[in-house]
Amino acid sequence: VHLKHWNVTIFHNQVYLRKFQQESNPAVLISHLRHHYPNAHFRVAYEAGFSGFWAHRVFSESGIECLVVNAADVPQTDKGIRTKNDVNDSRRIGSALAGGMLEGIYVPSLSQESDRSLVRYRYRIASDLNRCKSRIKSLLYKFGITIPSTFKKGKWTRAFLVWLKSVRLCFEPGDFTLKRMIGQVEYFQGQLLQISADLRTMLRSASYAQQSSLLMTVPGIGALTALTLLTELGDVKRFRTFYQLNSFVGLCPTEFSSGNSERIGPLTPRHHSMLRSLLIEASWVAIRLDPAMLLAYNEYKNRMSSKRAIIRIARKLLNRIYYILLKQQEYEKGIIK
How many CB atoms lie within 10 A of CB 82? Predict the structure, then answer.
């Protein structure tokens, strides 16, 4: 699946029929299939990527079963790895689908994906704002300008911006550069305020008010983290066990065991980077506020490094979150087990 074209491979009962290239439009493929193979039952699959799930929704609305698959989960041979191209990838997906070897990833509802986009955009704007601030500091260092000690706390207050606007860099081009950079900072600050207001409105909506209030009883979980968890996870009941949720977030280790040899490796590279990072940050707060979490952390720390210990706490915290969302109960501090 690409922006301008799709490579399509058709199988029937695991027998290869044909391949072709078409424009990137699911309606074109649906028309082709129904014209050339009337009364047939169709199943289609494509790799998850930049285009998201809109094609999946078009196929589903047309009564065609569609799977969106993780590219790493499509079976392939060593030869296939060394001769990778779009045509071969398409045939590999088609062969695996015909053989029943593919499992689709979770497809969020359109409303969930819309809510998720706003939350993710907030993180993106915050990242852009921090990047702009770092560029300004770097520019000041290059010109030998020292930030007054009263402003070294890292907070970009109005007073700091007033001082920053008064700085001169010897020549006009340098002053223009600094002025434009300050303008970027003010723009992103304004965007951040507007998005935060939108998120507060979302937080008070019927879809999130109750569950977010439950999540915010967890130490280390604030309004933004609660919204992030809810929009990224969706209905937590889709995870039949905590093991599945833990695997999705990526707080489980890799394993390379065989026979009597058991080798446990580092954290799995298959993870939800945003959720894993947020849960680890929340865990540092949890051990300060919850005696039971602090006790568990100290016990782990006696056997391992602090970094590994906090991962164990993050896993415990995720387990508590899973229970809270399933049972619709508030977090209770001080429970050891």
Answer: 7
Q: Where are the domains of the chain?
A: 5-98, 110-203, 209-327
Count Cα atoms within 13 angstroms, Cβ side, for 146. Answer: 3
The structure's pTM equals: 0.91
Burial class of residue 279 in the structure, from the number of CB atoms within 10 Å of its CB (0-12 exposed, 13-18 middle, 19+ buried): buried
Residue at token pair 């008010």: 209
**Cα 243 from Cα 319, distance rounded (Å):** 9
Answer yes or no: are the C-beta atoms of 212 and 226 closer than 8 Å: yes
CA distances from 279 to 88, 258, 260, 318 (A): 39, 32, 34, 7
Euclidean distance between CA atoms 181 and 165, whole angstroms = 10
Dist. CA 206–CA 210, nearest whole Å: 7
Q: Are strands 15-23 and 5-12 parallel, antiparallel or unpaired?
A: antiparallel
The dihedral region occupied by 268, where left means phi > 0, alpha psi between -120 and 50, and beta the remainder, is beta
Longest Cα–Cα distance in the chain: 77
pLDDT of 336 strictly over 70: no
- The residues with which 8 forms a beta bridge, in sequence order, are 20
Report the Cα–Cα distance between both ends of the chain, in Å, rounded: 48
pLDDT digits (tens, 9 = 90+) for 305-315: 999 999 999 99
Rg (CA), the chain: 26
Query: What are the tens digits of pLDDT across the range 99-134?
Result: 999 999 999 999 999 999 999 999 999 999 999 999
Helices (H) and strands (E) in the chain, counts: 13, 6
Written as six digits, the tokens of 96 are: 């695996």
